[in-house]
Design a protein that fits this description.
The chain is mainly beta and 276 residues long. The protein contains 1 helix and 25 strands. The longest helix has 17 residues.
Length: 276
């Protein structure tokens, strides 16, 4: 009986020695090490594992892997080169790996992270809307009333009175165009500080219409030169001024000449092209 028991024990030990002990199913991350800086155009992930396994690799800019830039499956090697263009410069990425063998799946490795080289893009400054104020002066004194104009730029804003303020405007270059209106009998002399201005983010700028009263201020002398020397003869021309009642025109037919009865303000000269 003792011989039979001993034979059974030896047979059992022989059978146990012939069976292969299963290899553990798991992964250990190798490179890049936690916190390493890598070249974003050439980054290779490597890990250590044993057995005839396939692997799944995930890379994400966030630690909870909600936004994946890489989700590679059925990887058969112990390394995975990241395709060029996958990673941004100056950014942090997290990565992890798990193994598959037959119907078994390992746990995900603990996440490791690396940082890509390159400059980190600056945080854009917040854009704050600005405002434009439109005002008017007549003979140096503030004036309010009806004026037709338009402000053009990143946004277009027509207006029909002054003073007035336009808010919630995008920063950029704005140009003021005057159409008509202003103090009765007055003419527009200028737009101050200029018809075109730059509006900065969150700032205010002002366009001021400068009007001159309708009193007669004098006349204008019209002369001509030919090759730098004084010349006289027939020339048809017109001087124009813009007032609240529309354009006022004075016409002349020869030079030298004098146009009288003009208002203070800006004059525009027009003459037809010469005929040869």
């Amino acid at each position: 009986m003792r011989k039979v028991a001993l034979a059974l024990m030896l047979s059992l030990l022989f059978l146990m020695g012939c069976n292969t002990i299963p290899l553990p199913l798991g992964v250990v991350l190798a490179t890049p090490s936690n916190g390493d800086t890598v070249n974003p155009q050439y980054t290779v992930l490597t890990w250590v594992s044993v057995g005839n396994n396939t692997y799944e690799v995930q890379v994400s800019p966030d630690a909870n892997f909600q936004n994946l830039v890489i989700n590679a499956t059925n990887v058969t090697n112990l390394l995975y080169p990241l395709p060029p263009g996958t990673l941004n410069d100056g950014s942090t990425y997290f990565w992890r790996v798990r193994a598959f063998r037959g119907g078994q799946i390992s746990q995900w490795t603990s996440a490791s992270y690396f940082i890509t080289s390159g400059s980190i893009p600056p945080t854009p400054l917040p854009v704050t809307p600005g405002s434009i104020t439109v005002a008017a002066l007549v003979d140096g004194s503030p004036w309010n009333g009806s004026v037709n104009y338009n402000i053009s730029g990143p946004s277009s804003s027509p207006g029909n009175s002054v003073p007035y303020s336009f808010g919630n405007l995008t920063s950029g270059t704005y140009t003021m165009t005057y159409y008509s209106g202003g103090p009765y009998g007055a003419s527009l002399s200028a737009i101050s500080p200029g018809p075109t201005q730059v509006l900065n983010s969150g700032a205010n700028t002002t366009f001021t219409f400068i009007f001159s009263s309708g009193s007669v201020s004098g006349g204008a002398s019209i002369i001509a030169t030919l090759n730098g020397a004084p010349w006289s003869g027939p020339v048809n021309y017109t001087l124009s001024q813009y007032t609240i009642n529309g354009p006022v025109e004075k016409t002349g037919y020869s030079v030298p000449g004098t146009i009288s009865g003009l208002l203070a303000g800006i004059l525009e000269s027009h003459h037809p092209p010469s005929r040869r």
